[in-house]
């Protein structure tokens, strides 16, 4: 004969501890766990600040603005639907929970009106959002027909840097080839023809437009327009190898006058060996005598410097960054880069292929004075 009901309840309220002794049951207090979970859930929101350099919320052009509008509408509609239905579910769980003395309620096996309602309304909502999304996608495929003076730029992704070619930079057929810093005029559409020299990359400037894949043997297209003067940060958004995270770039949006001045001054001959003086002249002699430098890099106006394996160095001294936007352009950073590029960007082609780096330690086979001279020459390329 078993224990009476009261004894069962009392015995179930106790539990054995690890020593085999009976320990009194403790009431579970979920509040600290809930607070900790809420704090952890809020951490991702730290990345949503609109003033962050790669935030999608602080838009600076029409493409990014329309994409953000679509995202916000979809997000808040889904939040409203979630709150509505989860709220109804929680209300039902609390309101109609089983209580002592309750008997089995009347069983309902269907309600045609409710079933039609909760099928038709979500279907209409999904169709409406889907149609709007498709129309937005096609609307952003090409710049507005009324837009004049669109700039055409060919973008080529390399492991791990970006090449930009302007087929007609100033409206008179001026061709410009540069790298890692894209210069565009404010308020004008920029049409990009995207292709890759090696593996799949993805071109992404969060404040100006969503990302588009850059695929070998295939040309993809996108466009954006910068409506604010300033510098905007871009990033390869498709894993492409060892230095993927270091494949960055910048888009500089200039006034129309400043842009035309940049076009006019770009590629002006930096001077012959005889024109340069002092340390810079010695640096140019080192650059010109080093077959690896000439084989990989182009400097417009310098005979023999026509390599295409590495970034175009024309106008390097006017840039804010180098090494695919990961280092500010200054003497200290240039020295660190030139002495051992692999220490800055693992897997880069310069360390692997340039004869001057084929040493046991992987360091440059030049003296400190020669490196200093080379730095002065590179900074003189303006």
Describe the structure.
There is one protein chain. By secondary structure, the chain is of the alpha+beta class. The protein has two domains: 55-87 and 118-266, Cupredoxins -  blue copper proteins (Immunoglobulin-like, Sandwich); 278-379, Cupredoxins -  blue copper proteins (Immunoglobulin-like, Sandwich). Helix content is 37%, strand content 19%. It has eleven helices and 14 strands. A five-stranded mixed beta sheet has the order 5-4-3-7-10. The chain has a five-stranded mixed beta sheet with strand order 6-12-11-8-9. Strands 1-2 form a two-stranded antiparallel ribbon. Strand 8 (201-205) and strand 9 (209-214) form a beta hairpin. Helix 3 (62-95) packs antiparallel against helix 4, helix 6 (278-289) crosses helix 11 (368-379) and helix 8 (331-339) crosses helix 11 (368-379). The longest helix has 34 residues, at 62-95. Residues 1-24 have low confidence and may be disordered.
CATH architecture of the largest domain: Sandwich
Give the total of domains. Answer: 2
Distance between the termini: 100 Å
Mean pLDDT: 84
The count of strands amounts to: 14
The main sheet comes to: 5 strands, mixed
CATH superfamily of the largest domain: Cupredoxins -  blue copper proteins
Give me the secondary-structure topology.
Blueprint: H1 5-12, E1 14-16, E2 22-24, H2 31-42, H3 62-95, H4 112-139, E3 151-158, E4 161-166, E5 176-179, E6 181-185, E7 189-196, E8 201-205, E9 209-214, E10 220-225, E11 230-236, E12 248-254, H5 256-265, H6 278-289, H7 291-296, E13 321-322, E14 327-328, H8 331-339, H9 341-344, H10 349-353, H11 368-379
Parallel strand pairs: 3-7, 6-12
Antiparallel strand pairs: 1-2, 3-4, 4-5, 7-10, 8-9, 8-11, 11-12, 13-14
Helix pairs in contact: 3-4, 6-11, 8-11
């Amino acid at each position: 004969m078993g224990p009476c009901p009261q004894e069962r309840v009392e015995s179930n309220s106790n539990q054995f501890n690890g020593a085999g002794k009976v320990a009194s049951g403790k009431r579970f207090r979920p509040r600290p766990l809930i607070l900790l979970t809420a704090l952890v859930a809020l951490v991702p929101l730290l990345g949503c600040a609109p003033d962050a350099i790669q935030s999608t919320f602080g838009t600076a052009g029409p493409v990014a603005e329309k994409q953000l509008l679509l995202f916000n509408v979809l997000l808040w509609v889904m939040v409203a639907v979630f709150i509505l239905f989860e709220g109804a579910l929680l209300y039902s769980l609390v309101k109609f929970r089983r209580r002592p003395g309750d008997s089995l309620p009347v069983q309902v096996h269907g309600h045609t009106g409710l079933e039609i309602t909760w099928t038709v309304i979500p279907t209409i909502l999904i169709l409406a959002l889907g149609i709007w999304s498709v129309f937005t996608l096609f609307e952003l495929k090409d710049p507005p027909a009324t837009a004049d003076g669109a700039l055409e730029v060919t973008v080529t992704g390399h492991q791990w840097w970006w090449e930009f070619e302007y087929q007609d930079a100033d409206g008179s057929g001026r061709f410009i080839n540069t790298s890692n810093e894209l210069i565009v005029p404010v308020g004008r559409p920029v049409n990009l023809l995207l292709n890759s020299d090696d593996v799949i990359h993805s071109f992404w400037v969060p404040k100006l437009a969503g990302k588009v894949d850059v695929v070998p043997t295939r040309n993809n297209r996108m466009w954006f327009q910068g409506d604010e003067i300033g510098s905007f940060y871009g990033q390869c958004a498709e894993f492409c190898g060892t230095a993927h995270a270091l494949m960055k770039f910048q888009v500089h949006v200039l006034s129309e006058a400043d842009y035309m001045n940049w076009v006019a001054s770009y590629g002006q001959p930096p001077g012959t060996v005889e024109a340069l003086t002092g340390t810079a002249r010695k640096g140019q002699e080192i650059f010109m005598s080093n077959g690896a430098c000439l084989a990989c890099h182009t400097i417009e106006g310098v005979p023999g410097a026509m390599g295409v394996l590495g970034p175009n160095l024309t106008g390097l001294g006017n840039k804010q960054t180098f090494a695919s936007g990961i280092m500010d352009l200054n003497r200290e950073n240039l020295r660190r880069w030139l002495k051992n590029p692999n220490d800055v960007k693992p897997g880069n082609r310069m360390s692997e292929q340039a004869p001057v780096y084929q040493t046991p330690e992987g360091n440059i086979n030049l003296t400190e004075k020669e490196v200093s001279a080379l730095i002065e020459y590179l900074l003189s390329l303006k």
